[in-house]
Write a structure and sequence with these properties.
The complex is a heterodimer of chains A (281) and B (219). By secondary structure, chain A is of the alpha/beta class. Chain A is 43% helix and 22% strand. Chain A has a domain of 52 residues. Chain A contains ten helices and ten strands. Chain B has 219 residues and is mostly helical. The longest helix of chain B has 40 residues. Classes of the chains: A alpha/beta (281), B mainly alpha (219). At the A-B interface, helix 2, strand 6, helix 3 and helix 5 of A face helix 6 and helix 7 of B.
C-alpha cells in the first residue's frame, strides 16, 4: 500500500463538509479511479492527498508517513514523490517545453545539464522530442497535457495524481493520453490515482474504482465488479447514465452512416435532424 | 534665445530629467517590488496568508499614495537634506520621487503578479516548490511581460512628477519650463520643453510595450 486516506474530512470555513469521512487504500502499482459527479468533492480530495489543501480532519498516509505530521520542509520533499496532472495543464507559459519539464528538477537542486538530459528522455517517452524548444502556447491541448505528464513524472514520483486530466480534451486525444498513462503504469510501475467524472476513463485504464457521492465514498471495488453489479444508487445512476450516453452515441453514429450511404456525408447527424425539423433537445 | 543656446539648455534639461527619472525608478522598484510581492504573498489567497500584515501594508500604501506629490516633496525635506546634503537640484529630487513612486509601483507589481494563473502556482506547489522558489520562478518569471509593461507606466509617471519638481528648483525639463516659460514669458522655450517631454514619454511607453510583447511567449 502506497497511499491511505483515513477518515478524511474537509470543510471550508463553517460550511457543509465537502468531504466526509473518506477512507481509501491505494496499492502500489495499481491504477485507481475515483469517479463522481461534479460537486461530489473529487477535486478537493485530489488536493488533500498532497496537502495542497489541508484536510479538516483525518489522515493522509503516503509511503508510511502521515503528511499532516510532517514539518513544512519534509512536506515539500514528500510532494516531490507525488506527481500531479491537472485538467487545465497548468504549464508555465513563459518557459519552453523543455524548461517546463526541467522545472521540478530545477527546484529540487538538479544540475542543469543532468536535468536537461533527463527532460529530453521524458519528452521522448511522451512522444514530444521534436517540441523541446517550443513554447506551450504553440501546442495543442493533448500535447500540452503530455508535457505536463512528462513534468509530473520527472522526479520519478511513487504516485501520479491525475485530476480530470482528460476532461479538457476531445475523445481522440483522451484515448492517446489514457494510453500513455497505462504505458507509464506498466513500464515504470508508477501508481496512478485517476480522478474523473467520465466512466470511459475508469473503464479503459483503472483496475479498481471508488465512487464518490455527496462527499462520501459509497462504493469501492474492482472496476468490472462495480460497474456490472452496482450496489448503491449513486453507482447505478452513473452506470445507467453512461449506458444512455452510449446509446445516444450509437444512434448518432447510425444516423451518420445512413446519411453517408445516402450520399450526404457532409451532413452531421445533428444538422440532418435539424433540417428534418426534429429538435434534439 | 539663440537656437544653439536653446538646444544646449534643452539637452541639459533632458539629461537631468533622465537622470532623475531613471534613478528614481530604479530605487522605487527596490522598495516597491518587495512590497508588491509581500502584498500578493500575504493575501488571503496567497502563499502565506497574513491577514493583519496584508491589511496594514495595504493601508500604508493607500495612505502614501494619497499624499499629493508636492506636499510629500516638502514634507520630506529633512530626509532629503540628511540623505543628499542639499534640498534643491536633480539629485535632491530623487528622494521624494522615489518615496512617492514606491507605493505606486507596489500596486503595479501586485496587479501584475495577481494575473499569474493560480493553477500554475498550484502545479508548482504540487511539485514541492517552496514559497521562495514560487515567488522567483513562477510569479515573477511568469509575470515578466506584465511587469515590464508596468515599468513603462512607472517610468512615464515618474517623468511627469519630475517635471512637477521643477516648480521648487528640482532641475530638468520641468524646471526649464517654469523658469523660462512661466517666469520669463518665453513661450517658445516652454513649448519646446513640453514637446520634448511628450516625445520622451511616448518613447518610453512604446519601448516598454514593444519589449513586453517581445518577451511574451504566449500567443
Amino acid at each position: 500500500m502506497i497511499l491511505e486516506l483515513r477518515g478524511l474530512t474537509k470543510r471550508f470555513g463553517q460550511g457543509e463538509a465537502v468531504l466526509e469521512d473518506v477512507s481509501l487504500r491505494i496499492n502500489e502499482g495499481e491504477i485507481f479511479g475515483l469517479i463522481g459527479k461534479s460537486g461530489a468533492g473529487k477535486s478537493t480530495l485530489a488536493r488533500c492527498v498532497n496537502y495542497l489543501e489541508e484536510p479538516s480532519g483525518g489522515e493522509v498516509v503516503f509511503a508510511g508517513r502521515e503528511l499532516g505530521k510532517l514539518p513544512r520542509g519534509e512536506l515539500y520533499e514528500a510532494r516531490r514523490s507525488m506527481g500531479m496532472v491537472f485538467q487545465q495543464f497548468n504549464l508555465l507559459m513563459q518557459r519552453s517545453v523543455i524548461g517546463n519539464v526541467c522545472f521540478p528538477m530545477e527546484i529540487s537542486g538538479w544540475k542543469r545539464r543532468a536535468a536537461r538530459s533527463r527532460a529530453l528522455e521524458l519528452l521522448e517517452t511522451v512522444g514530444l522530442s521534436d517540441k523541446a524548444d517550443e513554447y506551450p502556447a504553440t501546442l495543442s491541448g493533448g500535447q500540452r497535457q503530455r508535457v505536463a505528464i512528462a513534468r509530473a513524472i520527472a522526479l520519478s514520483p511513487r504516485i501520479l495524481l491525475c485530476d480530470e486530466a482528460t476532461s479538457a480534451l476531445d475523445p481522440e486525444t483522451t484515448r492517446g493520453i489514457l494510453a500513455l498513462l497505462r504505458e507509464l503504469n506498466q513500464r515504470l510501475g508508477i501508481t496512478i490515482l485517476v480522478i474523473t467524472h467520465e466512466m470511459l476513463v475508469v473503464e479503459s485504464i483503472c483496475h479498481r474504482v471508488a465512487i464518490l457521492d455527496h462527499s462520501r465514498v459509497v462504493e469501492v471495488g474492482e472496476v468490472g465488479e462495480v460497474f456490472e453489479r452496482p450496489k448503491t444508487d449513486a453507482a447505478k445512476a452513473l452506470v445507467a447514465g453512461d449506458g444512455q450516453a452510449e446509446r445516444a452515441r450509437k444512434i448518432m453514429r447510425a444516423i451518420e452512416s445512413y446519411l453517408d450511404n445516402a450520399g450526404l456525408s457532409e451532413l452531421s447527424a445533428e444538422e440532418a435532424l435539424r433540417r428534418a425539423g426534429i429538435p434534439i433537445d | 534665445m539663440p537656437a544653439s543656446q536653446l538646444i544646449d539648455l534643452l539637452l541639459d534639461g533632458m539629461r537631468e530629467t533622465l537622470y532623475m527619472t531613471l534613478w528614481s525608478t530604479a530605487l522605487a522598484y527596490l522598495l516597491g517590488l518587495p512590497m508588491g510581492v509581500l502584498m500578493v504573498v500575504s493575501d488571503k489567497e496567497g502563499l502565506r496568508p497574513m491577514r493583519w500584515l496584508n491589511a496594514a501594508l495595504g493601508a500604508f500604501i493607500n495612505l502614501a499614495r494619497s499624499v499629493p506629490f508636492l506636499i510629500l516633496l516638502i514634507a520630506v525635506i529633512p530626509l532629503t537634506r540628511a540623505v543628499v546634503g542639499r534640498i534643491v537640484g536633480s539629485t535632491a529630487t530623487i528622494v521624494p520621487l522615489t518615496l512617492s513612486a514606491a507605493p505606486f509601483i507596489a500596486r503595479l507589481v501586485e496587479s501584475s503578479l495577481k494575473e499569474v494563473d493560480a493553477g500554475v502556482v498550484q502545479a508548482a506547489r504540487s511539485m514541492g516548490a517552496t514559497p521562495t522558489q514560487i515567488i522567483w520562478k513562477v510569479l515573477l518569471a511568469e509575470a515578466r511581460p506584465s511587469l515590464l509593461l508596468g515599468a513603462a507606466i512607472a517610468v512615464t509617471t515618474i517623468l511627469g512628477y519630475s517635471a512637477m519638481a521643477g516648480f521648487v528648483g528640482g532641475g530638468g525639463l520641468g524646471d526649464i519650463a517654469i523658469r523660462y516659460g512661466y517666469y520669463r514669458y518665453q513661450r517658445d522655450t516652454m513649448l519646446w520643453t513640453v514637446a520634448l517631454l511628450v516625445i520622451v514619454v511616448q518613447l518610453f511607453q512604446e519601448a516598454g510595450a514593444r519589449a513586453a510583447k517581445g518577451i511574451d511567449r504566449r500567443l
